[in-house]
Each structure stands twice: as C-alpha cells, then as structure tokens.
C-alpha cells in the first residue's frame, strides 16, 4: 500500500519474490489483492467511529470519464494534526464518505455532509478547493450549524492569484508561446532532453512551479561564464524576458513560500506576520503588490482570532490520496469510477494485522458487490462490455 503499485504489478512483484526464493508462501493473485483492498476500504467507510471527537474534514470532487463525480470526504481529529512539526500524511486521515454523484449541486453536497455527520459527528472545520458546488454546499451546511470553520485550500487560492495576475499579461502569453514552440522543435530531435516540462492544460497554475524552476535554471545557464552553444541556440530568446522572469519568480516565490509555511503551521492568530516573514522580497511592481495583498487577504479571512486555535490550510493530503488511488488502479483509472474507489479507505491510516483480520471477517465479498451495485450502478466498464457484446445499453 505504501508503494502504491498497481494491483497487477503488486501480484507480479509478489510472484517474483517466490520465484527468487525470497518467500515460500503462496502469493495472492491480482483478483485476490483487489478483493482484499476493496473489503478493507468498505470496512473503513462503514465501521463505527467515535462521534465526539472534533474533526477537520477535507472535501473534494474527482472526475474520470463518464457522468459520475466522486465526492470524497476525509477526516482527521483536529487534536492530532501535527501543526508545526510536519505536513499531514495519509496515515493521519480516515475515510469519512465516498459518494458517487451524477449531478452535483450545493443542495446535494449539503445533504451528503449531513449524512456523513451522522456517522462521524459534526466537524469543527471543513476545507476544500474553490469549486462552486462544494462552496455552496458547505455554506448551506454551516448556515444552520454555527461554529464550524470553513477554509479554502491555500494552493488553489495561490494558483488563482497567479492566474488573474499573469493571464492578462501579454508578456506571459508570449513567453508561454515561445516555450511551447521551442519544446515542439526539440521533441523529435537529438536535443529532446532539453525540452521544457509540459504546461498542463487543466489547473495549469496549480503546477506552474515546475516551469518556473526550469526557466530559472535555464537563466542560470545562460548567465554562466561560458553557456553552451545548444543552450544559446534553443533558449537564447529567454534573455529578452529577464525582467519579466524576475517578477514571475518573485510572485511565484511568495505564493510557494506561503503554501509551504501554512501546510505545516496551519492558520493561527499570528499567521499574518509569519507569512510576511516567509517572503524573501516583495518587489515594487503593482502586480507583485497585488499578489501579496491577495495572499494576506486570504490569511486575514480564514485565520482564527482565538489564541491557541489553529486551522488546517492545505488539502494537499487529499489530492495525494486521490492520486494514490488512481496509481493503484493502474490502467483501470481510464475506465471511469469503479469499485476500486474503495481503495482510498484502505490507504488511509495505519492498519495492524489484527485490524486487517477483523475487517476482512466483517466485510465479505458480497457486501462489496452490493455496495458497488447500489452506489455505482452501471459503470463505464459494464456499459463498454455491453456495447462490445452487441447490446447498446
């Protein structure tokens, strides 16, 4: 589970251990591993939980092909968040809810939040990205339940600030076009190793750090005493963007340092000064000041005012859990949402041998099949089999 191997890859690795003489016991096949993980996941989703423990909820939607969205809610006791020591990991969390939804509205999200609270108790904090249906559902839930803190994920907030600041900048548009043009020329050449990391089409500014680090390294090579001919040939044009890049590096650096700080420290009464202190320099440009003000507004909006209280500011651990689920699925992740979504329950927390035995005894295969039929209905995989079999469902 820690390595996040795909299921068939795990079975092959175990078989290789036996073949090499490193293990003598019979090893499970991929189907058995899949069954065990889904049974553990369903147990995590349905087992009794102490409803009196104050928890923070991490909420998100994930989409694959098909009409279904998957509403994911993970939870962590607020008292167990390792503020000031490290960022949260999947071992700190548990699965609260896993809800396939063909439609997602604020009212439907609010209803699912109510259902989740019946099992694990009302949260003291909820954190999510800036998705409109999630925000409406959380707002509706909180309107009649005062005292629940709502926090927007700092990474999404920072990405939105950069998007608003840069997308209207003609120089940024020109820079991106030149970078993509250069990569296109290099892709099928001997110098393909010099190609820039690909800019994502979706959530581009959530992952812009990769391109910023690449551009910064290229500028260092261009400014070296003897830059190589190939660097000059392919990236000499970048020198014309020197001033722009300095501003972009600074603005991205403010966002990145704020995220890094709040991911570990969380939001608290003194977060404003801590965030200001994490910036190496502010710069004098109006756009840099705009990004800085946006970050400080975020801190002011979501920080608690009570001494000693801290809120979680990052959903990074939730994004990681969804990514891990898709890696374990392997090629199946391209086939829409399936029962393997239960893997997220198995991946959360730490499982002792005794807990695993208890879980497998409590959840037979039939229970998993019933959950899949009830929650997912006719999946994309099922419909594909009908189509290829000549039955257009």
List keywords for this structure.
five-stranded mixed β-sheet; 5 strands; Nucleotidyltransferase, domain 5; 393 residues; globular; alpha/beta; 2 domains
How would you characterize the overall build of this protein?
The protein is of the alpha/beta class and 393 residues long. It is 53% helix and 9% strand. It folds into two domains: 39-152 and 315-388, Ribonuclease H-like superfamily/Ribonuclease H (Nucleotidyltransferase, domain 5); 158-302, no CATH class. A five-stranded mixed beta sheet has the order 3-2-1-4-5, sandwiched between helices. Helix 2 crosses helix 14. It is globular and about 65 Å long. The relative contact order is 0.15.
> How many individual β-strands?
5
CATH superfamily of the largest domain: Ribonuclease H-like superfamily/Ribonuclease H
Distance between the termini: 36 Å
The CATH class label of the largest domain is Alpha Beta
Number of helices: 16
SSE ordering: HHEEEHEHEHHHHHHHHHHHH
Topology of this structure?
Layout: H1 7-19, H2 30-46, E1 55-63, E2 69-77, E3 94-101, H3 106-120, E4 125-128, H4 132-143, E5 149-152, H5 154-166, H6 170-186, H7 209-222, H8 229-235, H9 242-265, H10 271-278, H11 286-302, H12 316-329, H13 343-347, H14 353-362, H15 365-376, H16 380-388
Parallel strand pairs: 1-4, 4-5
Antiparallel strand pairs: 1-2, 2-3
What's the short version?
The protein is an alpha/beta fold. The protein has two domains: 39-152 and 315-388, 2-Layer Sandwich (Nucleotidyltransferase, domain 5); 158-302, no CATH class.
